[in-house]
Amino acid sequence: VARLLERGSLDPKSTAGCAIGYRQVIDYLARPEPHDRDLRAFEDFLRKFGTATRGYARSQVQWFARDSDFLWLAANPFNPD
């Protein structure tokens, strides 16, 4: 992502730049006074990335649940039968 930004191949305000993952990486890279081994900033990046991902997954489930063309199947990865 850093190289894409440096080359001008990624605009932070574009659709791709606002996508989950890219947005959080761009914020992390553009943080004020960045330095190596900034554990707090990295933990914040991971938290924001996880929150955005879970929010997107939740909205997808809600969207599919409203569509009667989809059939929900019970799945248990520990019992494939």
Low-confidence stretches: none
Strand content: under 5%
Instruction: Report the structural category.
Output: mainly alpha
Number of strands: 0
User: In whole angstroms, how far apart are the ends?
Assistant: 42 Å
Average pLDDT = 92
> What can be said about the biggest beta sheet?
none
Give the radius of gyration.
Answer: 18 Å
Please give a structural write-up:
The protein is mostly helical. It has helices at 2-7, 22-29, 39-65. The longest helix has 27 residues, at 39-65. The radius of gyration is 18 Å and the shape is elongated. The mean pLDDT is 92.
Short description:
This protein has three helices and no strands. The protein has 81 residues and is mainly alpha-helical.
Which descriptors apply to this entry?
81 residues; 3 helices; 51% helix; mainly alpha
List the topology elements.
Blueprint: H1 2-7, H2 22-29, H3 39-65
Helix pairs in contact: 2-3
